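pls design
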């Protein structure tokens, strides 16, 4: 007997929970039943047979992920915008499915190279298709401040723009208005994606200091020259000062950020914070003595605690990079382990939840091969598609009794080498497709088995206009010359 057919409309499928028997703009009967708590917060049961399509879910999120599976069962043309004029076959299947991790994330660095709103929305669509559910939105850096803060307009008026990038002589900038942010947050929520905003402190703050010089360590000779939004890449020496006025400044920033982003978490960075200015600052040293602290690491922990406590009072939790383990952690803090997975193990030992995001496995700004012309960070060992697929989110040396602290993982797309949306496509896909399976599926992974499935999936990406990296290497027009900046930004 022929498989049932369904007419696909050129937008996400919409089914009202509890509404019983439905139709998809065609003759196919769709049965929906919710309240199946045994399927979990995001699980579903999908059946396609002679009687039509049946969804069993416990939540609206489960229904949404069942719909994504339905899309993946269609021929690739089902994802094209003219699909409403076609009747497409569906196979007879029975699927019961639920994710392995609750945090299945991707990080966008829109601070070093700005990504226009339309491209962020498109990325959210692609995340949803791959059942990724957290967008870590890296909004501030030495090289740019990308979110409008009403109380401090110079953050975007000054901090949102730089005069050039590593000597190219070309101004670069952009930012999201608060209306843009609300639109992005709503668009993500409709796709069951939570956005975690990152305001990086106390390092990576040159753009903020350029806008408001009083935030810097002005008693240090090297910091007395007027600062500009940084035009280089790497780790800038400028850091925020430790005055109460600076803490209050960022509390006000976080008030507006929390009003815009309703999710459970906010990220305050805490990574790559040089301590040289604090060591040279008489005021910072006096502050350390006033607070009864022993080291500059303690100063950073104190600074992070002031903002963490403020955010917690607003019902939010802190996410920070693994450098925050150098001091005492605020209760409830989640640690993102990026310098390998040792930070994840240490965080779990301290009783904190953790994400694994090790640079040598899931930093997708890295090159995908050693071939000449391969885009990406030239100083890092390549992260191939096979390596991305073989990533295991739970560290090998994580004691079994602590493994439950690993709540998920996220792949990162730092943008030093990602200047625009076309290069973003190339760096993200299909590695993010491979990563999405590692954080969703509990099944063992076999790259030889995965590859033919991926080849079929690439036809879906073709239908969606994604300019991914071909499996055999870049097209001629995707190759890039050696970049002007080739140094390791993490090198001493």
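designed seq:
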């Amino acid at each position: 007997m022929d498989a049932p057919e369904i007419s696909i409309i050129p937008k996400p499928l919409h089914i009202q929970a509890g509404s019983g028997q439905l139709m998809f703009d065609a003759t196919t009967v769709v049965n929906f039943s919710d309240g199946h708590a045994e399927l979990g917060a995001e699980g579903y049961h999908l059946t396609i047979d002679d009687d039509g399509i049946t969804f069993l879910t416990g939540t609206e999120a489960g229904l949404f992920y069942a719909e994504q599976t339905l899309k993946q069962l269609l021929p690739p043309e089902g994802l094209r915008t003219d699909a409403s004029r076609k009747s497409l076959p569906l196979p007879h299947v029975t699927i019961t499915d639920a994710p392995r991790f609750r945090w299945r994330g991707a990080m966008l660095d829109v601070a070093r190279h700005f990504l226009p709103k339309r491209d962020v929305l498109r990325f959210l669509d692609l995340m949803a298709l791959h059942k990724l559910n957290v967008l870590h939105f890296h909004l501030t850096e030495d090289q740019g401040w990308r979110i409008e803060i009403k109380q401090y307009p110079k953050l975007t008026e000054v901090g949102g723009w730089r005069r050039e990038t590593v000597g190219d002589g070309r101004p670069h900038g952009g930012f999201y208005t608060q209306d843009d942010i609300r639109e992005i947050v709503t668009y993500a929520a409709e796709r069951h994606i939570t956005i975690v905003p990152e305001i990086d402190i106390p390092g990576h703050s040159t753009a903020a200091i350029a806008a408001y010089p009083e935030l810097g360590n002005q008693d240090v000779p090297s910091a007395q020259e007027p600062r500009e939004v940084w035009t280089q890449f790497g780790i800038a020496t400028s850091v925020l000062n430790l005055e109460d006025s600076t803490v209050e400044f960022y509390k006000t920033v976080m008030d507006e950020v929390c009003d815009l982003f309703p999710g459970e978490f906010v990220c305050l960075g805490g990574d790559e914070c040089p301590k040289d200015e604090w060591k040279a600052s008489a005021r910072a040293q006096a502050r350390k003595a006033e607070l009864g602290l022993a080291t500059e690491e303690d100063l950073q922990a104190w600074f992070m605690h002031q903002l963490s406590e403020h955010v917690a009072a607003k019902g939010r939790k802190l996410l920070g990079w693994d450098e925050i383990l150098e001091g005492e952690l605020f209760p409830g803090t989640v640690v993102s382990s990026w310098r390998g997975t040792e930070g994840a193990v240490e965080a779990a030992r301290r009783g904190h939840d953790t994400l694994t995001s090790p640079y040598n496995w899931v930093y997708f700004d890295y090159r995908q091969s050693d071939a000449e012309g391969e885009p990406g960070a030239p100083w890092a060992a390549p992260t191939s598609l096979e390596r991305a697929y073989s990533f295991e989110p739970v560290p090998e040396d994580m004691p079994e009794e602590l493994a439950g602290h690993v709540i998920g993982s996220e792949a990162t797309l730092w943008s030093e080498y990602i200047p625009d949306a076309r290069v973003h496509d190339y760096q993200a896909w299909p590695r993010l497709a491979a990563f999405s399976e590692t954080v969703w599926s509990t099944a063992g992974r076999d790259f030889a088995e995965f590859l033919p499935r991926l080849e079929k999936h690439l036809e879906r990406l073709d239908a969606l206009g994604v300019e991914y990296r071909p499996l055999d290497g870049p097209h001629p027009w995707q190759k890039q010359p050696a970049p002007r900046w080739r140094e390791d930004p993490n090198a001493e």
